[in-house]
Design a protein that fits this description.
Elements: E1 5-8, H1 15-22, E2 26-31, E3 36-43, E4 46-52, H2 60-68, H3 74-107
Antiparallel strand pairs: 1-2, 2-3, 3-4
């Protein structure tokens, strides 16, 4: 185990135990080198990185994030990302069209 990874076994909101209810292999670490929390999976004596906690603190959002990003939810998550990307592209396209229309109105 890398020395800058500090295992978190007990925390204020019991997040480490709640994550283990989602996946018994989940382990919470504080990465002192990168100043962030990380979730790793420990299986057969080996630990592998799973994801970075996208919040400064360990709280219920971490549990929600772990549930959202589970492999079983990949199709739903991918669909959400694609829908969001389409929305952004359409918004950008509409904004561009509006700018062109305004320029054309000024020239006429």
């Amino acid at each position: 185990m890398k020395s800058y990874l500090i295992p978190i076994k007990n925390d204020l909101y019991d997040i480490s135990h709640r994550l283990m209810e989602i996946d018994s292999c989940y382990r919470v670490f504080y990465n002192a080198k990168k100043d962030r929390y990380e979730i790793h999976r420990e299986k057969y004596g080996k630990t592998e990185f799973s994801f970075v906690v996208p919040y400064e603190n360990l709280d219920a959002r971490t549990v929600d994030y772990a549930l959202q990003t589970r492999t079983e939810n990949i199709d739903k998550l991918t669909a959400e990302i694609e829908a969001h990307n389409r929305y952004i592209e359409k918004s950008a396209s509409n904004t561009y069209k509006e700018k062109i229309t305004k320029i054309m109105e000024v020239k006429n």
